[in-house]
Design brief:
mainly alpha; 2 strands; two-stranded antiparallel ribbon
Amino acid sequence: MQEKHLQIEDLTYSRDVRTWLYERYGKEQGENIWADVVDKYNEYLKDLPDYGGKKNGHAYAIYGALLVFALYPSLPDKPPIDELQSFVQSMFMRPFTKLGKIFDLNRNPDMCLIDMVFKRAGKRDQKDIKKYPAGFINVTEPYDREHHAARYHFA
């Protein structure tokens, strides 16, 4: 295993997953499942290119997804995907939910601010992609003044 990757204990999502495992399966079985998740995650790391680790903000999403891919096959009862969907969505979207309590994206000034954030992230990504070509870039679309919409996609 190479140090260039985010280790599972570096992911804030790990705490959420462990708590969920303990609540669902109990402490002992939850620990056993977690050990299997860690093993699978570490095995997956062997095949990954360098995404920039802690230096690349988007890397947390990539490694968070890897954690989810390691989690599901480790679950003994294979819960329905819709049950996991809400758990995973809350885990990944928590920062955006918090921001939504501060910013009202139905207001044009707040949406313009978000558009500026997207553009700044895209500029940072353009620098990062030179160092970590396996990563991706946030590409912003022109701000839609008529609909007050900020849009981006990944390339």
